[in-house]
Amino acid sequence: MAALMNHTVLPPGADDRGLLTALKYVIAGQDDVTISTPEGSAPLPDSVRRLLVDAVTALDRGQAVTVEPHRTVLTTQEAAELLGITRPTLVRLLEAGKIPYSSPGRHRRVELADVLAFRQHERATRSGVRGDGARGNPRPRRRR
Questions:
Q1: pLDDT band at 108 (very low <50, low <70, confident <90, very high)
Q2: Rounded to an integer, what distance in angstroms lies between the CA atom of residue 126 and that of residue 46?
């Protein structure tokens, strides 16, 4: 497989912060955004618009932004790396039915959308547990 390329953008200097704020205002607004070229114009798709809003917001906060392409069908190793877990752990999740997969031949394949949905569900579950103010049951201390 060819290496996936990514592109990282550092936040601009203080002189360009006003441009970011103006750009964020335009692309995050309610009006349709149209891209014009010498050949014509086309509306900016919502998915691209959301990506740009997130990127510009991060840059405006002084954060660097990396855009990295992914295939839509992943190997188990690629899916595990995306989730930050080991491949055997991912395989256990697949076999437990937590993430759908297909097996064309001997190897399992996982849809990127399913991996992202699982990651979002796990994050929501964890933040829901932590978001209620409870810290869980602390381990009782032994008295000596």
A1: very high
A2: 28
